[in-house]
Design a protein that fits this description.
Elements (H helix, E strand, L loop, with lengths): L1 E3 L2 E3 L16 H15 L9 H15 L6 E4 L2 H10 L6 E5 L4 H8 L7 E5 L4 H4 L5 E5 L11 H11 L3 E4 L16 E5 L11 E5 L1 H4 L39 H16 L2 H18 L9 E4 L3 H6 L5 E3 L2 E5 L6 H10 L11
Parallel strand pairs: 4-5, 4-6, 6-7, 7-8
Antiparallel strand pairs: 1-2, 3-9, 8-9, 10-12, 11-12
Helix pairs in contact: 1-8, 2-8, 3-4, 9-11
């Protein structure tokens, strides 16, 4: 058991796989377990979960720096970006980063039957390439190696060109400070850095982008008062971003209702300093430049690390490690031991 940032985490030693699956605080796991127990006993009705959905929605809004009325709930990044892709005009030109996670790119590529084209450029070139396209979609932090997009440059390019931007913050929200009220769409899945069960995801939609976002998965929960839109035509959707709501995965939101408000209550600068600081400590000890990202990708023997008890993942041919709230310098030391690093180069403390 580890105590970190006012919460308890039952995280195994050497767990550095948050970019794949986050480990919840005990209170989050307890909330889900209590929900399973109520389910077992038939103790809930659908509207009993409304509070949990509202809390997770507010928590996401706080984490990405937008008004809560902009936020819709869903289940996955690709599902929430599908309405964005569906709203593109025929022949639209989409800009993405090379090596981007496919949940961010495939919804747009799936529109090829309408002559929608997707162009990949180097991440650093994305802001300058924006004016030549109709929309851009990019992860704020790249899944494969933790590289960060230049948000200031992208915001400036968006303001100058008027070209809308969709941001995926799945690998960023929860460890880095974000203020993204300028972006047209901001989407994230909750089961990584947001420490929630899989099945909860959110998208923030700027008012100027709402009409160009087509609710292709509209259902009963997308109504202004969901329990009044369970039967009969005509189509009647909520006026704001909630028209994009998907019927929530109840147990996932029970966990997210605890996890996201907890994360939003923390000092974002302190969280960033902790997470990125541990990653940079590892890089420095290996003679590599610090990068200010909680995710690092190493040319390291994944099997050797696994044999030493380091829990990580392999992405794009490299071993990917991620440092979150519950990680400590002991996890850094474990990686260095596994790699046979000279102890004189080790971090202190």
């Amino acid at each position: 058991m580890r105590d970190a940032f006012g919460a308890e985490f039952e995280v195994p030693r050497g767990y550095l796989n948050t970019p794949s699956i986050g480990i919840p605080p005990g209170a989050v796991a307890d909330a889900v377990a209590a929900g399973v127990d109520r389910w077992r006993r038939g103790a809930d009705t659908p509207d009993d979960f409304d509070e949990a959905v509202a809390l997770s929605r507010q928590g996401y809004a706080d984490l990405v720096g937008v008004p809560v009325e902009r936020v819709a709930v869903g289940t996955a990044v690709s599902q929430l970006l599908a309405p964005v892709a569906a709203g593109l005009p025929d022949g639209a030109k989409v800009l993405v980063a090379g090596g981007e996670f496919t949940s961010t790119t495939f919804p747009f590529a799936a529109q090829a039957h309408r002559d929608v084209t997707v162009t990949e450029v180097e991440l650093a070139a994305l802001p300058s390439a924006l004016p030549h396209h109709d929309v851009a979609a990019v992860s704020v932090v790249q899944s494969a190696d933790g590289t960060r997009v230049d948000l200031d440059a992208l915001r400036e390019a968006r303001e100058r060109s008027g070209v809308p931007v969709a941001l995926d913050v799945t690998q960023a929200a929860g460890w880095t400070p974000l203020r993204l009220d300028w972006a047209d769409w901001v989407v994230a899945a909750g089961y990584k850095w947001l420490l929630s069960p899989r099945g909860a995801a959110w998208i923030a939609v700027h008012p100027r982008a709402l009409e160009r976002t087509v609710p292709v998965v509209a259902g009963w929960y997308a109504g202004e008062v969901p329990l009044q839109t369970v039967y009969d035509m005509p189509l009647r959707l909520a006026k704001g971003a909630r028209r994009l709501d998907l019927s929530p995965v109840w147990l996932a939101h029970l966990g997210a209702a605890v996890a996201l408000p907890y994360l939003a209550s923390l000092d974002p600068a302190a969280v960033h300093a902790h997470c990125a600081g541990l990653a940079d400590t590892l890089l420095t000890a290996l003679g590599l430049p610090a990068r200010g990202s909680a995710i690092v990708a190493l040319d390291a023997d994944a099997e050797k690390l696994a044999a030493a008890g380091v829990i990580a993942s392999t992405r794009a041919g490299k071993t990917r490690l991620g440092f979150h709230l519950y990680n400590t310098v002991a996890d850094v030391e474990q990686v260095l031991d596994a790699l046979g690093c000279d102890r004189r180069a080790r971090p202190r403390g």
